[in-house]
Structures are given as structure tokens and as C-alpha cells.
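Q: My labmate handed me this sequence with no annotations at all. I'd like to see what the chain might look like in three dimensions before we decide whether it's worth expressing. Could you predict it?
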Amino acid sequence: MKRTSLILLMLLLFAGISSAQRFAYVDTRYVLDNIPEYESAQEQLDIIAQEWQDEIEAMYSEIEKLYKEYEVEKVLLSDELKRKREEEILQKEREVKELQKKHFGQEGDLFQKRQELIKPIQDEVFNAIKEIGEKGNYAVIFDVASGMGILYNDPKYDKSDEVLEKLGYQN
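A: Here is what I predict for the chain of 171 residues:
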């Protein structure tokens, strides 16, 4: 209801500016959910992510086991052996954190796999929206799935250079 009101308000606002301009909206979540290749790619990503998560959890379990063993035996160990065991545990923690970063980090394996599997589908959707925008002579196409983001806009309605000129700057 709130989204529909927002869409209606935006359309009325733009319609008041110029009735010759056309506007539309697309729900990209709906579009993507109805593309079998996207669903398949998403399932592949989920499987891969779960495998990596299981691997990391197993490593953390091993670290926890080592730590518990260390706590039990600590009283009997010499200072040198204590340091050695502590360092071994810390090293394993560093390794698992590094692996976690490698798989799930900002530019990690999961991100790369997502780029490989999903980005081509998203690009195809974007190109279809752009084509519809150009052929349908739309000024703007909004994406209701992303909270009213603009998916396509006709460059002839871009007033950025005019704003810069008015402010005394040149492009």
C-alpha cells in the first residue's frame, strides 16, 4: 500500500511537470524470480555457500576441541609446551578466518561466483528494460523492488549539464 502510494505520488509529480513524458515501473525481483536460469544460479550459489560454511564450521569445531584438550592438559604442560599449543590454536584460528575471508569476503570467491552466474542474467534484464524504455519512449523506468530506484532514464531528460552551467561550471 505504501509502495503503491509512493509510486502514484511520483507519477503524479512527474505528470505535473510534463504530461508528454512517459513513466513506468518494473519489479525486478518478480522478473528475476520468474527466470529459471536465475533460480538455478541462485540454488548453485546457495549450495556452494553452504559447503564453504560447513567447512568453516568444521574447522571451528576442531579449534574448539583443541582448546578444550589444552584446557584439560594445561596444568600438566611445561611453559614451552603451553606456548606451543596456544600458538597452534591461534594459527588454526587465523587460517579459518583467512579461509572465511577468502570465501565470503567483499571480493571473495562467493562474490566472484555470483558475478559469474547471476550478473549475466541481471545484465540481460537491464538490457531488456533499456530496450523497452527506448522503444516505448519512456522518460524513466523505476524499480519497485529496490525502493523506487531508476532502472532506465532517457538521456535527453538529463539536466545535469544545465545545473553545472547555472552554477558556473563547464562540462
